[in-house]
């Protein structure tokens, strides 16, 4: 920010930086506490806006927050129908307004020299989704491209730790990951989402969040017999023993994509007595 560069250039002395016509910011070790903060010099009179800002923050703790000019936090005065028309409601969130920033997706993509998108890898447990996701991320890294992997198990360690594996919770799990993936893509990052995501409608809902061409669905077309033979986490064994209920492929369905961008049919390689999957890197 210009303020910090001005302070460095001044050797740490008090600086006054103009933010917009009539508004400046005073800060520095030699400035008194009463001088620090926003200052308006409208009409030739200096007015410390710091107290007004504190009043606004205090008001926000109540049922309604007021800005410096008496409007609400969305910039709307009173309760006129004209102002109410600017507000929207999404789900259980009401009286909200989307705030645009001058730095958008195009600018961020230019900065990163890449296009943000979502690569959604879906398939049965033990089909190789995480292996493919990490291999792809590593390949992109070597090419100087920024990516981030949203792994199904990893997100359940934090963001989605409150969700179970019931159908409704699985749907919410995918919805949340879809929204996060959308943010990554909007930031210009190549987001690789690696989840079983068994239900077609949930994957399609995530696709609908992004512009055409920005959602790339990859189906790990690996037979359940192969997945169960691999079973690196021992989950299939537990499901067969009835210790895990609603396990995809055993007692809960998996709905394969109908119109995905890529289908990976992996062949099996027996290495040191283990079954592993290979041959996927050529796809990318």
Automatic annotation (TrEMBL):
InterPro entries: APS, APS_kinase_dom, P-loop_NTPase. Pathway: Sulfur metabolism; hydrogen sulfide biosynthesis; sulfite from sulfate: step 2/3. Pfam families: APS_kinase. Keywords: ATP-binding, Kinase, Nucleotide-binding, Transferase. Residues 115-264 form the APS kinase domain. Signal peptide: none annotated. It catalyses: adenosine 5'-phosphosulfate + ATP = 3'-phosphoadenylyl sulfate + ADP + H(+). SUPFAM superfamilies: P-loop containing nucleoside triphosphate hydrolases (SSF52540). Its EC number is 2.7.1.25. CDD domains: APSK (cd02027). GO terms for biological process: hydrogen sulfide biosynthetic process; sulfate assimilation. NCBIfam families: apsK (TIGR00455), PRK03846.1 (NF003013). Catalyzes the synthesis of activated sulfate. This is Adenylyl-sulfate kinase. The gene is LOC107403380.
């Amino acid at each position: 920010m210009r303020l910090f560069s001005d302070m460095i250039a001044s050797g740490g002395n008090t600086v006054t930086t103009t933010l917009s016509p009539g508004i400046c910011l005073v800060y520095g070790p030699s400035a008194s506490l009463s001088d620090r903060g926003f200052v308006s010099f409208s009409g030739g009179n200096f007015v410390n806006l710091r107290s007004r800002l504190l009043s606004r923050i205090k008001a926000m703790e109540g049922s309604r927050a007021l800005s410096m000019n008496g409007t609400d936090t969305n910039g709307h005065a009173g309760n006129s129908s004209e102002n109410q028309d600017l507000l929207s409601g999404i789900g259980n969130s009401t009286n909200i307004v989307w705030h645009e920033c001058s730095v958008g997706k195009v600018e961020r993509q230019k900065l990163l020299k890449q296009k943000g998108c979502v690569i959604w890898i879906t398939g049965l447990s033990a089909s190789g989704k995480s292996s493919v996701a990490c291999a792809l991320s590593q390949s992109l890294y070597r090419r100087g491209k920024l990516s981030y992997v949203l792994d199904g198990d990893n997100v359940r360690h934090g963001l989605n730790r409150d969700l179970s594996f019931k159908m409704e919770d699985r749907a919410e799990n995918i919805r949340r990951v879809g929204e996060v993936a959308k943010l990554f893509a909007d930031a210009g990052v190549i987001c690789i989402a690696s989840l079983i995501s068994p239900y077609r409608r949930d994957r399609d809902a995530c696709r609908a969040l992004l512009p055409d061409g920005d959602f790339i669905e990859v189906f790990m077309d690996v037979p359940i017999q192969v997945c169960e033979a691999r079973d690196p986490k021992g989950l299939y064994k537990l499901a067969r023993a009835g210790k895990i209920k609603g396990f995809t492929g055993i007692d809960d369905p998996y709905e394969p994509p109908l119109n995905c961008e890529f289908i990976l049919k992996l062949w099996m390689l027996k290495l040191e007595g283990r079954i592993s999957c290979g041959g996927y890197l050529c796809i990318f």
